[in-house]
Amino acid sequence: MSQDDFYHVIDWQRPWLHSIQDAAALIRERSDWRDCLNRSAQQAGLRNHRDLPLHFIAQEDLPEGTAYEAHISATGGVPTRSNLHDYFNALVWLSFPRTKQMLNALQAAQIAALGIGKSRGPARDAATIFDENAAILVVAEGQAGDDWIAAWRQHAWGACLLTQRDWFLQHAELWAFGHALMEKLVAPYKAITTHTRVLRAPDAYWQLNHAQRRQWIDQAMCELLQQEPLLNQDYHPLPVLGVPGWWEGQDSAFYADTQVFRPRRVTAA
Length: 269
What we know:
InterPro entries: DUF3025 (IPR021390). The protein is an alpha/beta fold and 269 residues long. The chain has helices at residues 21-24, 33-44, 68-75, 84-95, 97-114, 122-133, 143-153, 157-163, 165-171, 179-184, 210-227, 252-255; strands at 55-57, 77-79, 134-140, 172-176, 193-201, 236-239. The chain has twelve helices and six strands.
């Protein structure tokens, strides 16, 4: 595959791409995709946390020795290579700009304070994990949602994703966020697992259309990142192909595969 047609392998009908489908509609499989990205960013008035216009630049325009996140923070320019990883990253910027802005601000602040070393440090590490591999699990407010989340966090996979499948389809949904996660899912396999953060949604959320839900999620997650520190222990695993309706053959044997749907690790007292 040449560098210019890397995006032809994407199956846009896959359910895990619904989170970026609005942004992708005017861009996908266009030879001038970077120009399209910049037009979309300009039309949406996207800016970074320093209120600089967000735009997408070629990787070679990143000055040597300059950290990627620091450059975005200082200039608003997002280095974007001709590959799936950066292509998805750009589409996430267009889809969840407030959340990406907050993550960039956090990462840039950590780089300014600690520099670039062998270890990112816990705060930057947690932000990088979110940026690369997170998904946002929206669950309805109320006792039923509390009970579902508690069971999920205990890794009661069959109960959550099979027995309560109908409940999940009406009262919960997963939104892929991490661009590395999306890249892996271009060639899906059962063991792909996301670092998941939860948002509780009021009744009004379920009356919104797709674009309105995405905007609600972006705002709610941005506010959450402003209010709470981002910590690795706040992530919970979810094998992506186990999401109800996201893969074929989701029967009891599918969820009984403990190599993927692992029992919760019991720590010694």
